[in-house]
Design goal:
8 strands, 4-stranded antiparallel β-sheet, about 290 residues, alpha+beta, binds zinc ion, about 55% helix, about 15% strand, 8 helices, two-stranded antiparallel ribbon, elongated
């Protein structure tokens, strides 16, 4: 059971909020150029999800309710930030148009008062407040493919897009939560060693570590990799993951928590050149 930690929760909310606002602004900017229907929110959600995963790993946060609150908040903030970004763009566009209009009509306005009044009436309208801008967007409608959405359908389309982005982010984050986590020192497992294995290495590892493996039949096509994971506090002997390809091209995996004697044997296997005995090594944690 992962314990709830206030300090982690607050830091997580702050980080998630900052990332969500940033991603929303980027989405508003990119969306001004290209915005494929349906795909765009998924891309935005994936970007947000990737960043949230980074934050979760950074904070060693695995408390699921905390993660859930942060992801939902980030999804809503990201959507709001995107609309806010579009509003800011509309403001900049208005300022550009107003400046252009000013230059074009300067000479004409000086001719007569009536002319100046007519020009004033044609002056570009500012977008008003954020609420007014959104209301105007709803009224004007939104073109998606051959359809022109209007009224509440615009709101529904916005909600659907926010939902898609949130779902994409949530899938990425939830996949991350399946990563091994140590409740003892409250940290995610880090990859501390990884590499490729030759067929004879894999066979030897299987024998020494007593792993039930079938021998690969075609060594020519053989590929195998190993990964050793451990928590920051090194509370356990670590977790070994093996991936190899069988003769018929299927990928096989094996993974398990190692017992301390197995880890000692593994450390000895990783240093085959020297004959002397090695104590259980404490390799520096490397970024995975
Ligand atoms: Zn630990």
């Amino acid at each position: 059971m992962v314990a709830f930690r206030w300090e982690k929760f607050l830091l997580w909310l702050l980080l998630a909020a900052g990332l969500a606002v940033g991603v929303g602004q980027v989405a508003a900017w990119v969306g001004g150029y290209i915005r494929p229907v349906g795909v765009f929110p998924l891309l935005v959600g994936s970007l947000l999800g990737g960043m949230l995963v980074g934050a979760i790993r950074l904070l060693d946060l695995a408390h699921r309710p905390s993660v859930l609150v942060g992801v939902v908040m980030a999804g809503l903030l990201c959507a709001a930030s995107e609309h806010w970004g579009c509003y800011l763009q509309a403001h900049r566009e208005y300022e550009r148009l107003a400046a252009e209009w000013e230059i074009k009509t300067r000479g004409l306005a000086a001719l007569s008062g009536q002319m100046a009044q007519a020009i004033q009436q044609q002056y570009p309208q500012p977008p008003g407040s954020w609420g007014q801008y959104l209301a105007e967007q709803v009224e004007r409608g939104r073109r998606i493919g051959p359809w022109l959405l209007q009224g509440r359908w615009v709101w529904i389309s916005w909600l659907a897009e926010a939902g898609l982005a949130l779902a994409a982010a949530a899938v990425l984050v939830w996949t991350t939560l399946r990563w091994p986590y140590c409740t003892g020192c409250e940290s995610w497992y880090r990859t501390i060693r990884q590499g490729r294995l030759l067929p004879k290495d894999l066979a030897r590892w299987a024998e020494v570590l007593e792993i039930p493996l079938r021998q690969p039949e075609v060594p020519g096509r053989f590929r195998a990799q190993f990964r050793l994971l451990q928590c920051l506090g090194q509370c356990t002997a670590g977790r070994l993951e093996l991936v190899w390809e069988t003769a018929d091209g299927h990928l096989q995996t094996w993974q398990a928590e190692l017992a301390p004697p197995q880890r000692e044997k593994l450390d000895a296997l990783c240093q085959p050149s020297s004959g002397e005995q090695h104590p259980p090594s404490q390799p520096p944690p490397s970024a995975s």
